[in-house]
Amino acid sequence: MVNVAIAGGLGNFGRTVTEVLNRQGKHQVSVLGRKAPDTKDSQVSFISVDYNDVKHLQALLQDNKIHVVISCLSLTDDSAIAAETNLIRAANRSVATTRFITSNWGTPVLGEMTEYMPWLKYKLAAINELKSTKLEWTHFIVGYFLDYYGMPHVKTHLPPFLVSVDVATPSSSFTGCSMASPSSAPGEEYDDI
User: Fold this and answer.
1) Positive or negative CA dihedral for 79, 5, 135, 104?
2) Contact call for residues 3 and 28 (beta carbons, < 8 A)
3) CA-CA-CA-CA torsion for 158, 14, 120, 96, nearest 10 degrees?
4) Nearest Cα to 27, choosing from 57, 69, 62, 78?
5) Which CATH superfamily is domain 2-138 in?
6) Three-state DSSP class for residue 175
7) b/e map of 116-153 (b: 16 or more CB within 10 Å)?
8) What residues does the NAD(P)-binding domain cover (predicted)?
9) What are the angstrom distances between the C-alpha of 58 and each of 30, 45, 51, 95?
10) pLDDT tens, position by position, for the chain (193 residues)?
11) CB of 17 closer than 8 Å to CB of 9
12) Residue 91 CB: number of other CB atoms within 10 A?
């Protein structure tokens, strides 16, 4: 059985990854997090971590014989990418850890896209850090989570994200998103579908 640690495994998306891997029963699943949960899930072990301390992280990965790290951290600010980078460095130094899945679950990461999607710079930084390691690594580009279209009728741990799509006129509206020139958005070539 492979020992898998999920960073952010009790968060929005991470909770789903944790539940699915645990339900499959093919892996020993542990959750890495800053603060222990209020309730204990007896099926998943929780490992309290300090993402600021690479040696601490390395020791935890080795002591728990973690083979694979799956990051579900929300890479949206400097502190989050610092945590991801330290976790990558610790995994690279750990004698037990051989694989790392970085927290890049939705959008393809291209450098030129960071101008209008600033959070992608954090994901790009994690990928560049992984390229300098001995780890086997990957990231999954799954696109837009269909959970958002099924809310509230499907079980999900994701928070609401309102998107209005009018297929007939091909137009869309993203709540909380403003672009000076929507025509500069990627995907403009698809507006005639």
Assistant:
1) negative
2) yes
3) 180
4) 69
5) NAD(P)-binding Rossmann-like Domain (3.40.50.720)
6) coil
7) eeeebebbbbbeebbeeeebebebeeeeebebeeeeee
8) 8-145
9) 15, 18, 10, 9
10) 899 999 998 887 888 889 889 989 899 999 999 888 776 656 788 999 999 999 999 999 999 999 999 999 887 777 888 999 999 999 999 999 999 999 877 667 666 666 666 667 778 888 899 999 999 999 887 766 666 666 677 777 767 666 566 666 766 665 555 444 444 444 443 343 3
11) yes
12) 28
Locus of tokens 């990957």 = 138
The residue behind tokens 């029963």 is 25
Tokens of 50: 């300090």
Where do the CATH 3.40.50.720 domains begin and end in the chain? Answer: 2-138
Only one residue has tokens 């492979």, namely 2
What type of residue is 15? Answer: R
Tokens representing 158 are 């994701």
